[in-house]
Design a protein that fits this description.
175 residues, alpha+beta, Umud Fragment, subunit A, 2 domains, two-stranded antiparallel sheet, 1 helix
């Protein structure tokens, strides 16, 4: 028969618990640091058309309507813009909180790619659908000027859009 020293047993238990707590903390810390490193690597290594946008800063559209083009009277507001039209939006949620179903847009047909800047909201045609998203990048490649667009509430950017696919530029939103 073996006699167990109770003092020896009591001192061993806390050491075992403490080592398990330290081990769990170390595993958590390694996992957390690995996730940070992986996220940093992925956000810097993907090509723009498929990249995850971690930049929450949204650029504002370029100014188009000047104060001199707006007249306000007691019973109406007049915005003098040549060849403007109204647009309505499908309830996709991709541009929330800026707009969704129920908002009205004022749009123009851009005449050149120089009229479209980062931050502008454009309507482009893809597979017979009209898509309304914000320009987040403008660049030049071997095919010419391209635009990368993204819905304000979407995680991922769209594919490259060419000027020939852009049908409208939104110059105002009315709620």
């Amino acid at each position: 028969m073996r006699i167990i020293n109770t003092m020896e047993t009591k001192t061993k238990k806390p050491e075992g618990v403490l080592s398990k707590v330290i081990l769990v903390f170390a595993i958590f810390a390694i996992g957390f640091l690995s996730a940070l490193a992986l996220n940093s690597y992925l956000s810097n290594s993907l090509e723009s058309p498929f990249s995850y946008s971690s930049n929450s800063e949204v650029k504002a559209p370029s100014d188009f309507i000047k104060e001199s083009q707006i007249s306000i009277t007691k019973d109406k507001i007049i915005i003098n813009v040549e060849d403007a039209s109204l647009s309505a939006y499908a309830p996709t949620g991709s541009m929330v909180p800026l707009f969704d179903k129920g908002a009205n847009g004022i749009r123009i047909v851009p005449q050149s790619e120089d009229e479209i800047n980062v931050g502008d909201i454009v309507t482009y045609k893809k597979d017979s659908m009209l898509i309304v998203h914000r320009v987040i990048e403008k660049g030049i490649d071997t095919e010419g000027t391209y635009f990368i667009t993204k819905g304000d509430s979407n995680e991922f950017a769209d594919e490259k859009v060419r000027f020939s696919d852009i049908k409208y530029k939104t110059i105002g939103i009315l709620y």
